[in-house]
Amino acid sequence: MLNMVFLTNSWLTSFNQPGLCITVAMLLHYFLLAAFTWMCLESVHFYLALVKVFNAYVPKYILKCCIAGWGIPAIVIAFVLIINKDFYGNGSLSEIHPYSNFCWIQDNTVFYISVVAYFFLIFLMNTAMFITVLLQIHSVKTRTQKTSRFWKR
């Protein structure tokens, strides 16, 4: 959906409908945040599969993942819309970017908080999960090598 909204964004912007532009910018923002959130959920699943192999049962796991994957971005979008729906709009209406025919976030502060900071938090979470998984794999490998040396003796 992120790709579909991105590819149709310029075409939909050409209709010069402010409501349509706000909707397209909001959908683009939502699906971008949803992609980041699902990436984070993949790292959590990676952690559960490789580190917490046993005793990793989570009741209604898929339902919880879906609620997080689709709900957290919706909450962020709702906050942006509640604060000011005019944060979304057409960049060509601004004097800074007169030729950009694209609906997106118009306020730099909102962009940095709701996209860049969001991505940075997801990136930190993924990095922490990745390092944890690597350390777990390394410790399993070390234990296996020690036991194989013991049995060879």
Automatic annotation (TrEMBL):
A biological process from GO: cell surface receptor signaling pathway
Protein topology in the membrane: Multi-pass membrane protein
PROSITE patterns (alphabetical): G_PROTEIN_RECEP_F2_4
Transmembrane portions of the chain: 20-41, 61-83, 110-135
Transmembrane helix recorded as keyword: yes
Domain G-protein coupled receptors family 2 profile: 1-153
Molecular function GO labels: G protein-coupled receptor activity
Chief place where the protein resides: membrane
GO cellular component: plasma membrane
Keywords of the record: Membrane, Transmembrane, Transmembrane helix
Pfam family, one: 7tm_2
Cellular compartments annotated: Membrane
Name recorded for this polypeptide: AGRG4 protein
Protein's organism: Poecile atricapillus (Black-capped chickadee)
Primary gene name: Adgrg4
